[in-house]
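> example.struct
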């Protein structure tokens, strides 16, 4: 049975996974150097689960890119990742921090010439793990997301929901400390969206810190987790909601 639980060495994490302190982001060359957001302050503790909500263009994807170091500078403020100030990271340290993260993009970025098993095993193979062992672990991951019958299928033959589950399996096979998901339910119907969020909830129960960006506050309301909402370029914290189980 696949398990995300880590060894004692892997569990030696700082008291915060992510910390933003009065962060502002703007892009040079934008009209009037327009800010995407400003004065953003929040912290993700190890093993926490948060939704990141807000309308299209509110800054959700930009915030995730700051966390995963796709954007390496801010207009103002400080960002700490796994106890490190992101502005002081050396170039060679960035890939090491990214290895602690699993990222589920809006686009699936699956390789069409590789089947499902090969796509999911790829992160392990790139880390130097033997192909046979990598595929054994990939089979367990694929079973966990409910796609065992599609191991040998290629991405173009899969539905949107199936592709999303393959992308999730690939993102978490390396047992990340932090999982970032950008609109992971945007291409599926509501039933499949709930199933995908249940997968993230299982990861959370195993100890992974989870941050899910979604424009669908109604969907987030089905789960009792805190919400970070972008509104008028500010980030507003909403405490966990009580969700009544039917």
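> example.seq
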């Amino acid at each position: 049975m696949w398990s995300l639980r880590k060894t004692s060495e892997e569990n030696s994490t700082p008291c915060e996974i992510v910390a933003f302190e009065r962060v502002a982001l703007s892009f040079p060359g934008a009209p009037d150097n327009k800010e995407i957001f400003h004065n953003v302050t929040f912290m993700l503790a190890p093993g926490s689960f948060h939704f990141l909500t807000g309308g299209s263009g509110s800054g959700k994807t930009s915030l995730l890119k700051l966390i995963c170091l796709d954007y390496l500078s801010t207009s103002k403020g400080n960002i700490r990742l796994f106890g490190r100030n992101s502005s002081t990271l050396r170039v060679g340290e960035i890939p090491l921090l990214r290895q602690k993260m699993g990222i589920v993009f809006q686009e699936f970025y699956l390789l069409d010439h590789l089947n499902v098993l090969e796509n999911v095993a790829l992160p392990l193979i790139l880390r130097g793990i033997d192909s046979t062992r990598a595929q054994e672990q990939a089979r367990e991951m694929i079973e966990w997301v409910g796609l065992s019958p599609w191991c040998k299928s290629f991405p173009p033959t899969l539905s949107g929901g199936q592709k999303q589950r393959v992308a999730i399996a690939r993102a978490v096979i390396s047992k990340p400390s932090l999982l970032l998901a950008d609109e992971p339910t945007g291409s599926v119907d509501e039933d499949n969206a709930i199933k995908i969020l249940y997968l993230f909830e299982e990861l959370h129960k195993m100890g992974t810190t989870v941050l899910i960006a979604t424009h669908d506050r109604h969907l987030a309301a089905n789960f009792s987790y805190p919400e970070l909402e972008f509104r008028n370029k500010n980030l507003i914290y909403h405490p966990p909601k009580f969700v009544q189980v039917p």
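> remarks
Residues 23 and 51 are 19 Å apart (CA to CA).
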